[in-house]
Amino acid sequence: MSVKKTAYSCQNCGAIHFKWSGKCTDCGAWNSLVEEFAEGGGSHFTRLDDEKIIKNSSVKNSRIVDLVSLNGQVQDFPRIKTGINELDRVLGGGLVQGSVVLIGGDPGIGKSTLLLQTANSLAKNNNSIIYISGEESVDQVRLRAKRLDCDCESIKLASTTNVAEIIETVKNQKGNPVVIIDSIQTMFLDGLSSAPGTVSQVRASAGELTIFAKKHNITLLIVSHVTKDGQIAGPKVLEHMVDTVLYFEGEKDLHFRILRAIKNRFGAANEIGVFEMNEIGLSEVSNPSELFLASYDYKTSGTTVFAGIEGSRPILAEIQALVAPSFIPTPRRAVVGWDLNRLAMIIAVLNTRFGLNLFDKEVYLNIVGGLKIIETSADLAVACALISSARDIPLENSTIAVGEIGLSGEIRMVSNLEARFKEAHKLGFKNCIIPKANEKNKNFNNIIKTYPELNIQTISHIRDLNKFFKK
Ligand code: TYD
Ligand code: MG
């Protein structure tokens, strides 16, 4: 007789509990436990089954695994070029045959559009493609394909949500197709009676598909929605299972989108690809700096250009600050595209080490174009923008700033200076404010010699910024 094992899985953190309670004891979320059970002790509740595995395990019956030397012959991973350069770059040079790629993002950001265009581009290069849509009917996908001008006959399409059916279908196809699953939240496995989209269904479906793909050398692209309120019955519970995790980000009301590699077993993480969404789908943006600086006006106070590095690629971004008088006891601080805590730190350092008091002022900071900056080397550009706005003095024409600020006001060394200079030079910038600490680098003089047109000013402390903001 089959035994029904009941467990309650937290939809916020994925923890499994044996008893229901109003609050998850692991993450503290309220009302997040959902009853989920597997028939006959199915293999999907890892924690329940671990005990069983330990009890039944027998060291005697296990086979001896071959141990090999680290210095063995290796073959390069065969890669399939998608034909979309921005995507290929983020993947580290194309899709690795037999790898599993997860594409996460907010609903409506453009994941299905990107994947349909990718499928079309792959099919044009004679790759075999299967597109499984669990969200849209075949007609809906066809309609979208028409709008996007995807005319490849060879893309095979199906609308289903049953993982077993998908596996059976793909097994019967010749060759090693690229399979697109849109999206994992709609998929379900028969063995589990919880609804599609719950943590255990999402995890079990993705697990089953991944094992199948690895066994048959099939390349898998899985779409996963980031669900509301940061609930993670989505990409977060799957990140450890797959080879590559890409996030598609952007503000819905802005045109461009950023595809960012969070994890990549076959390439660099943090690499980004930039796309623009228009009436005929996504188009690639091969020079994003130009796009982000499109309406940069150096004559206005409160703006500074930061020469950043995203993955291996330099990107210039405009940082805007507004310092305004406040009429409330706790002045507002708001940030778009940067870290609010980091802004609080820069404001405090400016106050103590530079003598700029912003405590009774409202401070707004915006990275133009919806870009999100995580590099600490943006500190100096942020400080420049704040000083410029507070004093209402624009920074000298065509200047970029880069440097990390320490709590004592010192300006710390940054990496990849050459790539930053190259991009600044390419876009016609003339002045660079950089950390003095970088002079210690062995090849600093060579870099300077390579860009004689750039006027490079090194500073060691935040108070040195004074000379740039004098009337
Ligand atoms: P979609 O790919 O369906 O998003 P996701 O799969 O991530 O949920 O994209 C939907 C949005 O993209 C929708 O708001 C309309 C917009 N869009 C365009 O602007 N142009 C286009 O050519 C297409 C196909 C979509
Ligand atoms: Mg979609």
Which short descriptors sum up this protein?
471 residues; nine-stranded mixed β-sheet; seven-stranded mixed β-sheet; 12 helices; globular; binds thymidine-5'-diphosphate; binds magnesium ion
Describe the structure.
There is one protein chain. This protein has 471 residues and is α/β, with parallel strands linked by helices. It has helices at residues 46-56, 85-91, 111-124, 138-147, 163-171, 199-216, 235-238, 288-292, 340-354, 379-391, 417-426, 444-450, and strands spanning 4-10, 16-17, 33-39, 79-80, 95-96, 100-105, 129-133, 155-158, 178-182, 219-225, 244-249, 256-264, 272-278, 281-284, 303-310, 313-325, 333-336, 361-367, 399-401, 404-405, 411-412, 431-435, 455-459. Strands 8-7-9-10-6-11-12-13-14 form a nine-stranded mixed sheet. It has a seven-stranded mixed sheet with strand order 17-18-16-15-19-22-23. A hairpin with a 2-residue loop joins strand 13 and strand 14 (281-284). Mean pLDDT is 87; it is low at 40-54. Bound molecules: thymidine-5'-diphosphate and magnesium ion. Residues 111-112, 135, 182 line the site of magnesium ion (MG). Thymidine-5'-diphosphate binds next to helix 3 and helix 4.
